[in-house]
Design brief:
15 strands, 483 residues, Dihydrodipicolinate Reductase, domain 2, 6-stranded parallel β-sheet, binds NADP nicotinamide-adenine-dinucleotide phosphate, Rossmann fold
Length: 483
């Protein structure tokens, strides 16, 4: 199968924070891979900006080093790297000061597509927006890319939206949730809306419940100090898990375009019932000899959660009565992200011995081994009568799509190219982000008022006991966390 490369117009992309961790690990390697894929025209300019005093050559040398570390060996060609590096430029600017902006203005061409990637702390967004506008650098249709976290509550998210809105319109702002750039996540929409197969079953009449799991094996590591001010609810649930929930629960948009898709996602968030204390469990990992969350966070009294499990309901006609269970945590037994849509029992069993019956289930694996698995009942082979057995209809993208499936682009590759193409479908709109905070704020405020410590769970386990009970009480169980 030959991959279709959609060419993009020549562009100038300015990366504020180009010497930072995200730029080195994700943004620049993704751009290089798109360069290899023939999508970055040679006349494109990628302009790095930060306070570090570097010239173009020094910046290019830093980027070459990052590529050697973060790009697969098989993709490292000296000739291609040299070609990519020629697209790179560098300007020293402190976002809060006035020096350097004229030099940037001279580099950014007014007649090309322009994108400005704010890969810096959100506290700098205002300073950058003011100066891009004040120095008349950004065209009226320039694209502004901002990273998570987009606020830490509704008030701060609104303030950030207002800061950006002072100079840019909503259709210029690209809020990244890299989960939306994952191939499997986009495939959720293809599976739902390009096939007739599932739609008739995709409702509370046939779906017993949905489980969304994002499990990590790593702890908070070097991000401990930051993470301790955030926690799993803010860091993962409010954005990534809620976005996955939206894609599963949304109504079919009338067209695959930014407004239609985001309107439908917003309706899901607005339809979420408020949660009660019985709907949610928080956990904090503990480990031997200084490896507990509190050690990693450097805060012996921390009440921040490294794990959340919750049960929520989408209060609309389609989903009334179908719970959605979400969980995410660090230092769990395996690294896995998946969505399981668990179907109800057939209304009547015609088989005498139905003790082996198991639910039909559609499991969408986001990582590892991206793919889908439909669990079905069939007859166990052999002469022993009509015994039932559950078997998987298993589809791994890598196998089904050959080379292309094995070499799926990183989420950032897709998202950055969408920015250049001016397609906002896979980016969060301001009202979506605010609605998500409006739902999570009261939950977090309740925890903060209660001052309770999250339940301890062992590093390498499946999470806190109470999270298992959250499902058991409803007569259900979580899928095992395993790779
Ligand atoms: N790293 C990740 O995996 C990740 C994931 C998701 C979201 N994010 C978000 O992405 C953003 C960047 O994260 P990061 O991890 O790359 O941070 P980082 O490693 O601390 O890098 C920050 C960058 O901003 C530059 N910078 C800082 N102050 C500046 C100023 N006053 N003017 C101009 N440039 C300035 C820094 O260079 P100088 O110090 O030389 O100026 C550096 O290039 C943050 O908002 C973060 O929350 C990061």
């Amino acid at each position: 199968m030959v991959s279709r490369v959609i060419p993009v117009d020549p562009f100038d992309l300015v990366i504020f924070g180009a010497t930072g961790d995200l730029a080195r690990r994700k943004i620049l390697p993704s751009l290089y891979r798109r360069f290899l894929g023939g999508q970055i025209p040679e006349e494109a300019r990628i302009i790095g900006v930060s306070r570090a005093e570097l010239n173009d050559e020094q910046f290019r040398a830093q980027v070459a080093e990052a590529l050697s570390e973060f790009v697969n060996q098989s993709k490292q060609s000296a000739e291609q790297i040299a070609g990519f590096l020629r697209c790179l430029h560098y300007v020293t600017i402190d976002a809060t000061e006035e020096a350097g902006w004229d030099k940037l203005k001279a580099l950014v061409r007014p007649d090309l597509v322009q994108a400005f990637y704010f890969s810096v702390a959100p506290a700098l967004f205002g300073a950058l927006a003011d100066r891009l506008h004040g120095y008349d650098i950004a065209r009226a249709d320039a694209r502004i890319v901002v990273e998570k976290p987009f606020g830490r509550d509704l008030a701060s998210a609104r303030a950030l939206n207002d800061t950006l809105a002072a100079h840019f319109s909503e259709d210029q702002i690209y809020r990244i949730d890299h989960y939306l750039g994952k191939e499997t996540v986009q495939n959720l929409m293809a599976v739902r809306f390009a096939n007739i197969l599932f739609e008739p079953l995709w409702n509370a009449q046939y779906v017993d419940h949905v489980q969304i799991t994002v499990a990590e094996t790593v702890g908070v590591g070097g991000r401990g100090a930051y993470y301790d001010t955030s926690g799993a609810m803010r860091d993962m649930v409010q954005n990534h898990l809620m976005q996955l929930l939206c894609l599963i629960a949304m109504e079919p948009p009338y067209h695959f375009d930014p407004s239609a898709v985001r309107d439908e996602k917003l309706k899901v968030i607005r339809a979420l019932d408020p949660l009660g204390p019985e709907d949610i469990v928080r956990g904090q990992y503990v480990g031997p000899n200084g490896t507990s969350y509190r050690d990693d966070a450097g805060n012996p009294n921390s009440r921040t959660e490294s794990y959340v499990a919750l049960r929520c309901h989408v209060a609309n006609w389609r989903w009334k009565g179908t719970p959605f269970y979400l969980r995410t945590g660090k230092k769990l037994r395996a690294r896995t992200s998946e969505i399981a849509v668990v179907f109800k029992e057939p209304p009547h069993s015609i088989f005498d011995d139905a003790t082996d019956w198991r639910e039909n289930m559609l499991v969408i694996r986001l990582q590892p081994n991206e793919g889908m698995n439909l669990k079905m009942m069939i007859k166990e082979p052999g002469p022993g009568g009509m015994r039932l057995v559950q078997v998987p209809l298993d589809m791994s993208f890598a196998e089904a799509l050959g080379e292309e499936g094995a070499d799926m682009p990183d989420a950032y590759e897709r998202l950055i190219m969408d920015v250049i193409r001016g397609n906002q479908t896979l980016f969060m709109r301001g009202d979506e982000v605010e609605a998500a905070w409006a739902w999570t704020d009261p939950i977090i405020a309740g925890w903060e008022a209660a001052k309770a410590r999250p339940q301890a769970y062992d590093s390498g386990s499946s999470g806190p006991e109470d999270a298992l009970m959250l499902m058991h009480r409803d007569g259900r169980r979580w899928r095992e966390i395993r790779e």
